[in-house]
Amino acid sequence: MGQQITVTGMSCGGCEQSVEEALEGVEGVESASADRAAETATVEGDADADDLVAAVEDAGYEASA
């Protein structure tokens, strides 16, 4: 099951990688892809949306489900 969350504050490829790594650390995430131009992250798996938002915020970015 795929989910998309809004992520703001990414300004470079390294930011995208940081967001992806943060999301991939959440239980239930199979894969994650961040897009700084679209200000989104797409997650495959059955992770809880609140956990995804919390992981991105812990990495230093703004997020909403």
From TrEMBL:
SUPFAM superfamilies named in the record: HMA, heavy metal-associated domain
GO molecular function per UniProt: metal ion binding
Assigned keywords, A-Z: Metal-binding
Pfam families per record: HMA (PF00403)
PROSITE patterns: HMA_2 (PS50846)
Record carries keyword Metal-binding: yes
Residue ranges of the TM segments: none
Occurrences of domain HMA (ranges): 1-64
Region (Disordered): 29-50
Signal peptide limits: none
Lineage: Archaea, Methanobacteriati, Methanobacteriota, Stenosarchaea group, Halobacteria
Species, as recorded: Halosimplex pelagicum
Protein name in the entry: Heavy-metal-associated domain-containing protein
